[in-house]
């Protein structure tokens, strides 16, 4: 336990603000009384290291450096670096450990720490050793990656760790199958020229040699031979190689990204550039990150998810409450369900307005229209309530290996709308024409149907007198909208709106079944009950307000049959044609439709190229290189994108 005291002033080397760290009250013995932190050089992603100048109370100042082991070793005196440094580093990183290099240096006492430059402090160091840390996978990481892989959603690792550590973690997480090859892509600038070289090496071949000298483990050979014989491969490269490829081998970059799985030692600007390069291949890119170094990539990705509530949450549109990638499938499920719901709403609103327009158009044929309360009932009691409750259906819990249609102008969606318009038009025209052929129909007498039925059914004078009174009441309140055609077309069109709402509220594979949306089901049942009540109630005052007229019971049953047939046909077509994915795939194959996505076309080309990837070969670039800015063309964070020239 230590006691951290802030605000201590030291005057021995000039006035400077310093922090004194002392042993805590529970410490039994301590080698020093306290340590003063005089100056710090913060971590730089470009330099891959940080350093601090400290001084023991009453002692000489010293500098301590930590960072990427290979970088720290380059800054140390050669005699202090062990001869087996590289082999030991490979041994630990191959096991998935996070390795940090440590070094120190004694500083002259007479010079103020603030006056020392970073280059002076971080040179001629004494190598201290390696700090080995185990960062185990979270319990939910591997199942989430397996779920994404089953849904044919590609996962890519972009990290600042050592490339061998990243590859091992990717294998442990299931991103790289044991039967797949890992090809290390190394790009280097040729000294003394403006060209560069790029080499493809099978990582398993290197591991055979290294492990033979380190552990003499012969049990890995069968698995490695199986990996080399497999047709699946993954590219792995460092941030340095990635930047050289962008500058000198731009034509190879899309091919490398198509199978690139591990990108290690990546700076923040390189992460942003990588996301943009994937987007140029027509990928929809989601990015997960929890640190300030990920802010740029989170901002430029299609969907950025921050796994912490610190700096990254400011740049990303989504923030997870739990620091794990379990939120990724959840976000994809909710996003797909929201997209499908939007299309369902679009289809319903298009059908609702078209159904109402067709009904009015038919009535205009006889210089008639819907009444005010009829319009109001369809707009408020039907459409508004359905529009609010239709979106309550939740996302389906399982991800399927394909996406929903992403465009409104797509053949399945347009065909669904057009076919349902034709079904509605056919039903309304059929009802409009057939009602005029009924024996009780009279164009001028809107009460002939009920009078004729009652005359044939009963000859009592009280019945005639009752209907005579009803006739007088209707004649007094008739506003010109009442007709047999109006009543027939309005009832058919109103219930037809409920039918299309039910048919378009599809569930699997992107949303839960419709019966899980209890509110929507209750709304549909209530609306259907009200419509059937209006159809069969035959209440004078209600009919007068709604501009409806009395029709025989047989005709009302006929309208119900028409609606039932329309429901059956619409539902059958929607399930057997519109939602029949094998049928649409067959049509695409028949008409030789090919995807317009750049990465799919490139994937098809590479499948035909037997010379790709060129294993154990080295290519050289031309003398002309593409100039790349410091931020790699992506979103940059000036606080964390420091360069060596400015430090």
Automatic annotation (TrEMBL):
Residues 1-27 are annotated as: Disordered. SUPFAM superfamilies: Calcium ATPase, transmembrane domain M (SSF81665), HAD-like (SSF56784), Metal cation-transporting ATPase, ATP-binding domain N (SSF81660). Its main location: membrane. Gene3D superfamilies: Calcium-transporting ATPase, cytoplasmic domain N, HAD superfamily/HAD-like. One of its GO terms (biological process) is intracellular calcium ion homeostasis. Keywords: ATP-binding, Magnesium, Membrane, Metal-binding, Nucleotide-binding, Translocase, Transmembrane, Transmembrane helix. InterPro entries: ATPase_P-typ_cyto_dom_N (IPR023299), ATPase_P-typ_TM_dom_sf (IPR023298), HAD-like_sf (IPR036412), HAD_sf (IPR023214), P-type_TPase_V (IPR006544), P_typ_ATPase (IPR001757). The keyword Nucleotide-binding applies. It is found in: Membrane. The keyword Membrane applies. It comes from the Eukaryota. This is AT134 ATPase.
